[in-house]
Amino acid sequence: LNEAQAATILSNLSRERSMPEFVGVFIPPRERMEEYALSSRSEKYIELLAETIVPAVEAKFAAYGSPPAKKGTRRLLVGPSFGGLVSAFSSIRYPALFPNMASQSGAFWYREAKITAELDRLESGKQLNWSLDAGFFEAENLRQANFRFLARAREKGIRTSYLDFPTAHRWIGWRGRLPATLRSFFQKRNCEDLW
Known about the structure:
Strand content: 5-15%
Helix content: 40-55%
Radius of gyration: 16 Å
Largest sheet: 4 strands, parallel
Strand order of the largest sheet: 1-2-3-4
Oligomer: single chain
Shape: globular
Number of strands: 4
Structural class: alpha/beta
């Protein structure tokens, strides 16, 4: 929220005629590595997200807006690094709830066998829409793990996009890429089916 200045980005994008009004939900981790790195605590974290937080937020803020959208289509999980890893995991576990996912410099290398096994268990990825990106100046093992995960996602039928950026593994790069990522999912001309 602070490092990426996400509230400002969401506010500015909400003012654009071609974009929806955004409601952002930011959940600070208590123990980032335990919650995001696909441990047993990650299971509890995404269960809390899916079964408690999403219903509470949508009840309070009427997040679907008007006109009504297909359930879940206007919801997007976004996370950098380990946040990208847990966002992908959440989308795989709850595809109807989180069909849209953006991973920025996803730390797939850290638990590659587990996230790949989860993806392999997914019956079909046709309902999913994912965006992955990484910086040119990031560690080669991170970039290669992203390429392998992207290839496996495409084999499962997941609609995917992938972009390389001239950045390193830093907040400034993720912040700079966030508006383009949000536009790719929500700009009216790109996603008429959501409107």
